[in-house]
TrEMBL record:
GO terms for cellular component: cytoplasm. GTP binds at residues 231-236, 250-256, 275-278. Binds 1 potassium ion per subunit. GO terms for biological process: tRNA methylation; tRNA wobble uridine modification. The keyword Transcription does not apply. The gene is mnmE. Its main location: cytoplasm. Residues 221-362 form the TrmE-type G domain. It comes from Sphaerochaeta globosa (strain ATCC BAA-1886 / DSM 22777 / Buddy) (Spirochaeta sp. (strain Buddy)). Its EC number is 3.6.-.-. This is tRNA modification GTPase MnmE. Its cofactor is K(+). It holds the Pfam family MMR_HSR1.
């Protein structure tokens, strides 16, 4: 990367800036062990340690006083996270200790790393491609089991491998076209464009791109609003799902006035659930404001679970993609045939309801987290879409018998997009954005 040097030594606190039992401070860069050994109680042991070994000792300040007892995990050049000589110090997690260690490293002439800089170096040294570097961020910020598992798969190279295979297939097509373009037509047998290979490739790219929806769902989660008329049992269901008495339940209509929200997990999908004020005509100013808020939430929801009180069927909205009508109080009255029914009191029908919610949100393709390559990055989605479109245009041109040099342009465009995905040809400004806050080429 133009303008970026990796020969300075960087350091950073790898754990949270908070008091805890232990904290980890990382140092990376050629010669870091020599420099660190000047303030380490066992200099020789640190300098001569083999790769991936632990060295116990004390870090000392300029006067020779111990700052803390530490364990240094040593990685020699070509190994470790950054593939540079590096040391990870596990120290005690007191803020005073952390502060002193960071001050010591600064004093020794090392540079405090920018956010994402360790990962950026791992990328520069070829330890990770761009999809894996992104997976590091996605893994660290994952909120659900499935999101974590999918990100880990990408970090281990599942997406990298998938894209490499697609690129190889594309390069095969490009090579065939180039041979044809390089030689006069009469020197070669009649050229047949590898059409079926192209069709297959388009499907692969599109299929991978389509996983974005599910990846996003498991990452970002969804908003579900419990709505319905007063006394329908919204707060009862809310409490049942959260397994705690969060919302007030009573036979008095209009009990819930303002909405309450809480987080839960529905079959691996992170859900923000809202209990809302029951919908009815009201002269009460406060209740009316609550109802307005309910309506606003309904507008913003990914899914509205509309509860109907089976004992007094009032307004029943139309089912649509975003509205799931559920008949409550099935323990008292049998609901209409074929309709989703539950009892928020006994819990009857609730597992069915949760399965239906997950199915609706995932639009049929519920993930178990370990079966497939799924993307969740908008950048990757855009590049895959661009690649698919370029390949599709190429197919149209081939079918119209347009000269090969024009179809080759579209193939080149697709190749460019796949290259950007893995970071082979990614512009510096995009890299800078990905390794957030970190200045490339400054
Ligand atoms: N038998 C039976 N009673 C229920 C069921 N669900 C709720 N109830 C009762 O119905 C009454 C109203 O329940 P809530 O959960 O407060 O209803 P709500 O929809 O939150 O009502 P508002 O907050 O007033 O809009 C309470 O007395 C509940 O105990 C159910 O499935 N079966
Ligand atoms: Mg309520």
């Amino acid at each position: 990367m133009k303008g970026y040097v990796t020969d300075d030594i960087i350091y950073a606190l790898a754990t949270a800036w908070a008091q805890s039992a232990l904290a980890v401070v990382r140092v990376s860069g050629q010669g870091c062990r020599n420099l660190l050994s000047t303030r380490f109680s066992r200099p020789k042991a640190l300098i001569e340690a083999a790769n991936a070994t632990l060295v116990h000792g004390y870090l000392r300040d300029g006067n020779g006083s111990a700052i803390d007892e530490v364990v240094a995990a040593v990685y020699t050049d070509g190994h470790g996270y950054t593939k540079e000589e590096s040391v990870e110090f596990s120290c005690h997690g007191s803020l005073a200790v952390i502060k002193e260690i960071l001050a010591l490293f600064n004093h020794l002439g090392m540079r405090s790393a920018e956010g994402g800089e360790f990962t950026f170096r791992a990328f520069l040294h070829g330890r990770l491609d761009l999809t894996q570097a992104e997976a590091v961020g996605e893994l660290v910020s994952s909120q659900s089991q499935i999101s974590r598992s999918l990100a880990l798969g990408r970090l281990e190279g599942s997406l990298r491998g998938r894209i490499a295979a697609m690129k190889e297939q594309l390069l095969g097509i490009v090579a065939a076209v180039e041979v044809q373009l390089d030689y006069a037509e009469d020197e070669l047998d009649e050229f047949v464009f590898p059409r079926s290979g192209l069709v297959d490739l388009i499907k692969q790219v599109k299929d991978l791109s389509a996983t974005y929806q599910i990846g996003r769902l498991y990452r970002m989660g969804a908003r579900i609003v419990l709505a319905g008329s007063t006394n329908a049992g919204k707060s009862s269901l809310f409490n049942l799902l959260l397994k705690q008495e969060r919302s007030i339940v009573s036979p008095v209509r209009g009990t819930t006035r303002d909405y309450i929200e809480a987080d839960l997990d529905v079959q691996g999908i992170p859900i923000r659930l809202y209990d809302t004020a029951g919908l009815r005509e009201s002269d009460d100013a406060i209740e009316s404001e609550g109802i307005r808020r309910t309506e606003r939430l309904i507008g913003q929801a990914d899914l509205v679970v509309y509860l109907v009180d089976s004992t007094e069927l009032g307004h029943v909205p139309k089912e649509d993609e975003r509205t799931l009508v559920v008949y409550n109080k099935s323990d008292l009255v049998k609901p209409p045939k074929g309709r989703m029914a539950i009892s928020a009191q006994t819990g009857e029908g609730v597992p069915n309801l949760l399965a239906e919610i997950a199915k609706r949100l995932a639009k049929g393709s519920v993930s178990s987290g370990d079966e497939q390559v799924v993307i969740e990055s908008e950048r990757q989605h855009t590049l895959l879409e661009n690649a698919a479109q370029a390949l599709q245009r190429c197919l149209v041109l081939v079918d119209q018998d347009i000269p090969l040099d024009i179809t080759a342009v579209e193939l080149g465009e697709a190749l460019q997009n796949l290259g950007e995905l893995t970071g082979e040809v990614t512009p510096a400004d995009i890299l800078q954005k990905i390794f957030s806050g970190f200045c490339v080429g400054k």
